[in-house]
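[job 0412] stage=complex_fold ligand=S-adenosylmethionine status=START
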Amino acid sequence: MSAPPELPELVVRALRMSLLQGYVQASRTETGRLLATLAATRTGTIAECGTGCGVGAAWLRSGAPKATRVITAELDPQLAHGVITMFADDDIDVMHADWSSLAQHAPFSLIFMDATSAKGWPREEIISLIDEGGMVVLDDFTPCPTWPPLDHGRVDTLRLDWLSDDRFTTVDVMVADDTSVLVAVKK
Ligand SMILES: C[S@@+](CC[C@H](N)C(=O)[O-])C[C@H]1O[C@@H](n2cnc3c(N)ncnc32)[C@H](O)[C@@H]1O
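[job 0412] stage=complex_fold status=DONE, emitting structure tokens
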């Protein structure tokens, strides 16, 4: 992918924390660049389900306009409190909580569903959390040129359902040879 090698300082800090903690689930840089670009178009509140070591939140904050709020929730206490400390002065609100607690801060202009339980959450409930024109972002899909989309030889029903839901305009973006990201915009 053509992109400048330099990373935003916030992202570098979060990646350093991932390295120190031996945390391997951090968002990839290709996904992060997409998150930052989408965030750049947003006003209001951006939410992330599953903070990890803060890499996704760092990309979202790096891209979002100053007045846009970024809020993220993490269930694991050690991770959550580590990121709260790391981002204490960075205008990122970190909650140590189940991601469903984010609902009290809805509606969202973008929600990044990056915890396994969030990814499979009923779309009816997700739709109630976002503004008209709001975006839902889901990552870590295996790129697939066929319809219906397949994953390891089986129909990828999660991706199929998102791509077929008439309440959203959705695209499957291949951000690298081996990974794709769904971006669904509420009509
Ligand atoms: C894929 S990782 C997140 C990576 C992070 N968003 C990033 O961009 O680097 C998923 C995270 O979700 C957290 N998690 C799992 N279940 C959760 C829940 N119910 N509520 C909040 N966080 C949860 C896990 O502890 C894990 O750190």
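Residues 9-21 form the longest helix (13 residues).
[job 0412] exit 0
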